[in-house]
Fold this sequence. Notes:
Chain A is an all-alpha fold.
Amino acid sequence: MTRKMGYHRILISFLLLYLLLPLIATALYAFAGKWDHTILPETWTLDWFRQMSLDARFLESLWNSFYLCGISVLLSLIIMLPTVFIVTVYFPRWEFLFKSMVILPYAVPGIVAAVGLIRTYSSGPIAISGTPYILIGAYFVAILPYMYQGLRNSMLTVDAPALLDAAEMLGVSKITAFRTVILPNILPGITVSILLSFSVLFGEFVLTNMLVGGQIETVQIYLYNRLSESGHLASTIAILYFSFILLVSIGLTKMGNFMKGGLRL
Amino acid sequence: MKKKRGRRALILLGLLPFALLIIGFLLVPVFSMLTGSFMNDSGDGFSLDQYVTALTNAFYFKAIQNSVLIALFSSLAGIIIGALAAYSITLFSPAVRNRILLMSNMTSNFAGIPLAFAYIILLGNNGIFTLLFHEWGWDIFAGFNLYSWTGLTLVYVYFQIPLAILLVYPSFYGIREQWREASYLLGASPVKFWITIGLPCIAPALLGTLGILFANAMGAYATAYALVGSNYNLLAVRISSLVTGDVVTRPQLGSALAVLLAATSIAAVWINSMMTRKVAAFTSGPSESPQSPRTRLFQTRKKVSTDQKSLTGRESA
């Protein structure tokens, strides 16, 4: 048995090494001073991080990323919360139609979505190509599957229709019941959806590059533009980006466990 | 009665913002792309020219071929490594298991531009391993070029493996320990057990995952764009330069290629959902499989959702 387990240990060790190697290399590069023809860097430095924090263009791209992703997620939440509520409670029979439409952005690659959007908005009555508006619209559609599934699952988990019936029987209107009973109950689910959507958008490249690439620089676009100029700067950005995504994922896992614990009560 | 109708109107009004955004940013663009793909280059009149060009012109056909080949190779490699690794992971103790899965999920976020960059550091012209192999005189690797088909496939495999693990892993919990014990008692060897019971049991999951991996690689754009730019002839890269190119744009042809790409991805996702339904028949038993929060998000409590798929690891492009 132990000899058998040995094979699995070796396999998994190799796998983890393989998966972590690119990350480690990027991290090394971000802290490396002189590193031309040796295996490991000759000197170490924090200079790249200092340079990056002083780089106005980077700070602007960071701000662009945050506000574009933030507005899109907020818009999605404001619109999807009542929509999912209405569909689950009033039109459960339409749900399959609704669902297949909402899932579409997941099944179709970003490059395809970009083609349609450019065709529609690069000319004609609404020429918003290259502006934040088209990007926010595209982002809204891109995170639909995540938002919809997250919100719907949490509403079904707390059995929203039954809760509503109970509240109505006690003489409360549906709107009040939604606000005071359902909303507090699905708050963890909402948080997970927001975090997930945000991290998806933060790493978005195709739509951003094709729709507003020449006009607005998000972190991903900035990273791409800097790739050929300064490898060290690019790797510091990559490491920062990854740490941020990592924090969000840890938050997601924690929230997931929390929700699971909550369900058992 | 009147009051009721008024309330109904109010409810429908609540769906209006959603409807407007969906129409504006999903339905109209899809419709515009579909109609555009059936037009000639000047943009008027119905014609199948674009599809004929896409499938017969050597240049565009080559792009489709390259994409299909790279997607096929990377997803096959991904599923083989992923399935072997996923099985090994199931044998560890729960605590170790979760830590391995966490690490694998974590690296699945490492995709697109940052990933391409990491590979340049590792295997680019001045990469760590390039120098290392040179120093050691390993000439086999001297011909290796990251900015070629081989290099691109290597990077694609990297982002396929965590996704494959994530998707295949739960299906191993469909194989009950009792079945194995029973087959051993009846005199079957481990190999025989896997061929006659184990593999058929997880085959739907493997096939479904293969579909998702294939679609994932077909639609991947950021990694290829960052590594080889427009120099390498891939479907996604071709579409982008046809629509937003600097020199000459042929949006109708780009639309036709995009429709072809979308059709493959939708088919792959559909196959996956069919297969997941089959797997659900096995796995909806007492044996519980730990899952990532993202996978859990896509399942309802009451029934296993038909589109149980994780969103991690999708080349976040």
